[in-house]
Structure prediction request, 359 residues.
Amino acid sequence: MSGGWLASGGHGVLANAYGLGVDNVIEFKVVLPVGGLVTASRCQNKDIFFALAGGGPNTVGVVMESTHITHPVTPMQVAFMGILTPTVNDAKKFMELSASRALDFQKRGWGGYLAITPRVGEMSAIIMVNPKLSTAEATSDVQPIIDWVATFPADKIVANGVFPVDTFYQAFTQFLVGPTGEAAPIGQPATVGSRLLTEELWAPSAVNGTVKALQDYMIALDPPAGEESYGIVVQYCLTSPFNTPATGFTAEPAAWRKTVLHALGGVAWSYDSTRDYKQGRKTALDTAVGILRKLKPNGQCYMNECFYDEPNYEKTYWDSAVYTKLVAIKKKYDPTALLNCWKCIGWKGASNPKYKCYT
Ligand SMILES: Cc1cc2nc3c(=O)[nH]c(=O)nc-3n(C[C@H](O)[C@H](O)[C@H](O)COP(=O)(O)OP(=O)(O)OC[C@H]3O[C@@H](n4cnc5c(N)ncnc54)[C@H](O)[C@@H]3O)c2cc1C
Prediction:
C-alpha cells in the first residue's frame, strides 16, 4: 500500500466518499537517493510529499512507512445485480442500462464496478456500495436495473437487489470478493489498458456514443474461444474521487476528479506462449484501447493501469505543469535517476538494457 498503489494515486470503491488513497495520507517516511531518511507531509518536505502522492513509482525515494487518515465504521448499502450472461446482446443491454446511469451514480455517492462480460454463461454484474443513502433511496437509484434483471429466469439470476450492511468489511467480504469468487490472480501473464472517462462524455448529446464505445471495447477484448483470458473481460470502475476536490498537495492527473468511469480491460497469455502470440495479444489490446482514445482524444489514464506502451505517456499520466514540477523534484533528490522504471519520471528510454523484457 505504501509503495506502488499510492505512488500513482490509489483508487477504490470508497474513493467517491473519501477520496483517492493519496488524499488520505498524513505523512510518508522515505529514504532519498541523495541520502537521508525524511518525513514528508502537507507541511514538511511538501515537494517530496507531492511526488510520492501520485508522481509515479520511483520518483524520489523508497517509502519505508506511511500514516493514514482512518474513517469511522459506517453502515452502507450494497447494490448487487448479477446474471449469468444469456446472450451477447443481453451483455450489451446490461452495459447500456448501467453505464448510461454512471454519472448519476457518481453524483449520488456510489462506488463500485460494472463487470459485464459478453461470454455466455459467465457472470455479468454491477456491484456498488453507498455509505450515504437509505435502503429505499438506494433501491430507487437502481430500480430500472433490478426490473430488467428480474425479467430473466431464476436460474440465470445471481443476485438482484440492495442489501444493507453494517460495515465496509462486510460489504467487501460478502459482496465485493465473495459472490464473484474472483480472487485476484497473482502472477498471471497479462497486461491492461484503460482510460479515465470524464463527465462531459455523459452529456445528453454524448452519452449514447459513450455507451457504444464501452460496448465495443468489451467486445473487442473478448478473446476468441480457447484463448487465454484476463479474468473478467472489462471492469468499468466507479472508483474515482468524483465528489472529492483536489487539494493541490498531490500529483495525480486532474482527470481523476471528473472521472465517471475508469474503463479498464486486459489481455492475457500463458507462461509458455510464443513471443509472436504475446505480441499479437498486446497489439489487440492497443487496438481496443484505440476505441477509448478515439472516444476521448487527449484523455488521461491512471498510470498503474494504463497500457504499458501508451504513446505520449507524459501527457497521458500527468498534467503538463505537474510533469514539469515532478521532473524538477526528481533532479533535486535523485539527480542520476538511480530509481527509475518504465515510462516513469526519470525513465532512461526503451533501449536501456533494464527494459529488455518490455520490448
Ligand atoms: C489484480 C490487481 C488489482 C488491482 N486493483 C487496483 C485497485 O483496485 N486500485 C488501484 O489503485 N490499483 C489497482 N491495481 C494496480 C496497483 O495499484 C499497481 O499494480 C501497483 O503498482 C501495486 O503496487 P505494489 O507496491 O504492490 O507493486 P510493486 O510491483 O511491488 O511495485 C510497483 C512499483 O512501485 C515501486 N515501489 C514499490 N514499493 C515501493 C516503496 N516502498 N517505495 C518506493 N517505490 C516502491 C516499485 O519499484 C515498482 O516500480 C491492481 C493491480 C492488480 C494486479
Residues 58 and 339 are 5 Å apart (CA to CA). The mean pLDDT is 94. The two ends are 28 Å apart (CA to CA). Residues 275-295 form the longest helix (21 residues).
